[in-house]
Amino acid sequence: MDGKEMVSDQASRTTAGVVSEGSLTDEPKIRQGRSQPLFMHPAIFVPTFVLVGELFALQSWINLRHWGYHVNSAILFGAWGTQYFIWGALCWLMWRFLPHLITKANLTQILTRILPLSLAFPVIEELIWVLLFPNLPLDRPPMGYWKRFEFQLQAEFIDSMVIFWCAFFLFRGINYYQRFREKEKAAAQLEVQLANAKLAALRMQLNPHFLFNAMNSISSLMRTDVNAADTMLEQLSSLLRISLERGSVQLIPLHEEMEFIEVYLSMQDQRYAGRVRRDISIDSELYDALVPAMFLQPILENAYAHGLSKIERDGELMIEAHRQRDRVNLSVVNSGPGLQHSNGHSPNGHGVGLANVRSRLRLHYGENCSFEMSQIDRTHVKVSIAFPFQLSHAAEGSITRYGAE
Are strands 315-324 and 276-282 parallel, antiparallel or unpaired? Predict the structure, then answer.
């Protein structure tokens, strides 16, 4: 006995073939969109089939040796390897040219199109294989091409059908998985777009609010100090230019935010000349830490409007930012009448500006952030913010947790 026919009688072939086919699905890596999984590339898929065939050849050779048969190992391994090479090529062609039929075929299409294909594939495979190995089977008298084809087809038909249907359901499963991943990706993109829309709306709300308050300050100075009003107007122009240059970027390095804040505080110095002493302390390692754009200005505006503007002299404003492991802790302390004298204006940090900051922090960081407003003593109020530490160079592709431009 020798060749492929001797091996076709082994019952283990079908079982092992099914297992080997299934092993191709081990954790397929689906790329973006409906692109081809890596292991479905023909340079990987077809050689994998050949390897499966050679494993069967090895199993057959060991069994035949155990039974006392001496076979030509070159013919044995060549026959098995060629058979599975043909099957690998046929299955890959089915995957390549019939993806929509594989994915969307209903019961009627399976019966009318896939079933005939499953009958045709074994025929095609045997036609090619018998042509390539005219001397097999060796344990039979010489036969013509069609006689050998009929003999091999009868011996191999069930096994061939198993291979075909295993490949079909494997491909169908891969396509279902790809579609599932596409839906997941689309849902994630919708979530990102929704978050971006919310952030953009909050930024649009914040800019007019800031501009309105600044123009009121300039207007009040026009009656008392025209030069200060003129300087403040120039500073406002600088702030608007900075805001426009940033565009829709949601997170920026802390040093850029502080540049904006320095100009804003200079504006306030024009209005509250000599009444407020400022103290700013920023850790140098936070220079490139990402922070929400324009998130400090509403806090400082609230400090001036509800605290520092209520006192005549010796006002205090302290801004501190420190890193604690993987978090940024930022605080703003200002003197004033305290929360109990706020007269309903943002006693718990729920004014327009502070509510805006709260919402933006939540959109950027989810539950992984905090915003607290508390009274240190009778004349000092503190706003404390904490959020994850993230460097600007590490976040160009994914600026926020839930997405932003």
Answer: parallel
Q: Which residues contact 197 (CB under 8 A, 6 or more apart)?
A: none
Q: CA–CA separation, 26 vs 29, rounded Å?
A: 9
Q: Is there a domain that residue 192 lies in? A: no
- Domain count across the chain: 2
Q: What is the mean pLDDT of residues 150-159?
A: 90
66-85: average pLDDT: 86
Classify residue 391 by its DSSP letter. B
With H, G, I as helix, E, B as strand and everything else as coil, classify residue 292: strand
- pLDDT score of 168: 92
CATH code for the domain of 302 = 3.30.565.10
pLDDT score of 19 more than 70: no
Q: What is the C-alpha separation between 56 and 383, in angstroms, rounded?
A: 72
pTM here?
A: 0.49
- For residue 212, the model assigns a pLDDT of 75
Q: Identify the residue with better confidence: 31 or 192.
A: 192
Percent composition of the chain: helix, strand, coil (DSSP 3-state, to 5): 65, 15, 25
pLDDT digits (tens, 9 = 90+) for 248-280: 677 889 998 998 888 888 888 877 878 899 999
Residue 143 to residues 136, 150, 399, Cα–Cα distance (Å) = 9, 10, 72
Rounded distance, CA 60 to CA 13, Å? 9
Full residue range of the structural domain in which residue 325 is found? 224-394
Residue pair 331/281 in contact by the 8 Å Cβ criterion: no
* Residue at which a domain ends, from 187, 212, 247: 187
- The answer as to whether 141 is a domain residue is yes
Q: How many CB atoms lie within 10 A of CB 180?
A: 11
Higher per-residue confidence, 25 vs 141: 141
What average pLDDT does the segment 172-201 reach? 74
387-390 long-range contacts, CB within 8 A, separation 24+: 387/291, 387/327, 387/328, 387/361, 388/326, 388/327, 388/328, 389/286, 389/289, 389/323, 389/325, 389/326, 389/327, 389/328, 390/251, 390/289, 390/290
Is pLDDT above 80 for 397? no
Q: What angle do CA 207, 213, 214 make, to 5 degrees?
A: 85
Are 39 and 180 found together in one domain?
A: yes
Q: Is 361 left (phi over 0), alpha (psi -120 to 50) or beta?
A: alpha
Are 253 and 314 within one domain? yes
Q: Is 153 in the same domain as 258?
A: no
Paired with 303 in beta bridges are none
